Amino acid sequence: xxxxxxxxxxxxxxxxxxxxxxxxxxxxxxxxxxxxxxxxxxxxxxxxxxxxxxxxxxxxxxxxxxxxxxxxxxxxxxxxxxxxxxxxxxxxxxxxxxxxxxxxxxxxxxxxxxxxxxxxxxxxxxxxxxxxxxxxxxxxxxxxxxxxxxxxxxxxxxxxxxxxxxxxxxxxxxxxxxxxxxxxxxxxxxxxxx
Length: 194
Prior knowledge:
Elements: H1 16-24, E1 31-34, E2 44-59, E3 81-82, H2 93-103, E4 113-114, H3 118-125, E5 131-135, H4 136-146, E6 148-150, E7 158-167, H5 174-192
């Protein structure tokens, strides 16, 4: 750790509206996450860290990992872990799943498990029985440790970029500036990756 005396308070993400409300109330210094439409409001300053693509992923020993070419249509009858449809937490996740299947003129397959919990998705993927759609950044940063692999399927869908949101009329503290610079440094490999 470069700055061992700095302590951070990390809040779990709620809906985008909730996150921006807390930022405007000055209860937090910044938001790091998906840059959604609401982040373009006049009082908010956004900085894009990296773009993110969506991929079909499986456990490292899943039978589909050995294939060199796969069409999404081949996977509709497989066991899927998908986000739930009825919560604000999936306001970004579910549209990209529906869009990915819709572009291929496929219905979203029935999920064996529905959850918005990424740790639960990863745990289920590690059994090598399930498939899921996750952003490239998750696999990039933790794929080897999590034993998940991207399947060779080109999806015509992208997640909103990941970035930092602060208030325009608020000076960012030196500690928050250090945090933002650290986020930029960590994101750099994704900016340059294909």
